[in-house]
User: What shape does this take?
Amino acid sequence: MKKLFATLLILSLFICTTANAQDVMFNTKSKKYHTLWCQWAKKCTVNCIKIDKKEAVKRGGIPCKVCGGG
Assistant: This one.
């Protein structure tokens, strides 16, 4: 029973860690990324995709001057 509990605890910690990846709105044309609640992210309808912040930076993204990109 203790092994099962320990396994479930480790599994739940892993799931929580991977679920906390920070998503941002990334404009593929301007290369700027915004937090999901940023006013500019909400207005972005063309060339914007929702991706992980690390991926946005990897693609050469720069943070928004208003929200800081999270």
Q: What stands out?
A: Helices lie at 2-19, 39-43, 53-58. The chain has a mean pLDDT of 84. The beta strands are 23-27, 32-34, 48-52, 62-63. The CA atoms of residues 55 and 61 lie 9 Å apart.
